[in-house]
Amino acid sequence: MSVLKHELTARDIMSVDPICVRPHTTIRELARTFEEHEISGAPVIDQSGKVVGVVTKTDLIRRCSEGTADIPPAYLFEVLSDQGDDEEASQVIPEPLICVEDFMTEDPLMVAPTISVATIAKLMFERRIHRVIVADDDRFPMGIVTSLDILGAYSR
Known about the structure:
With 156 residues, this protein is α+β, with helices and mostly antiparallel strands. Helix content is 34%, strand content 18%. It has a single domain (10-155), classed as CBS-domain (Roll). The strands form 2 sheets. The protein has a 4-stranded mixed sheet with strand order 1-7-6-5. Strands 2-3-4 form a 3-stranded antiparallel sheet.
């Protein structure tokens, strides 16, 4: 068993400069962001750049599965699917006005860059979450630590 020379911190393992979304990001834009950047979650930031929430693929799927009073779930999943080639562009499915703010997790767990990885792991386990946002004292996002980042740190 190897002994770490120093205690790992969030700063040591976080993904820096996280991809963020805004509260008014539509479900189609959110799905496209997740796909283009190969991520499964993102901080939600307000106009000043401060964290106001977090949203994940699981949140998106859950929201689409529920539908709305006026919109069945099948329609929402169809909105997220590829729109096809240019010939079909004239038949683009109109997107309902469902935005990230409608289903994001408000006031997400945020940690300082100096917090230990062991503490992050404990918090994630207790809250049954898979990512934490690393932020400064003013709630500006600096990075993200995922459960896979923690596994990777301890497997080295």
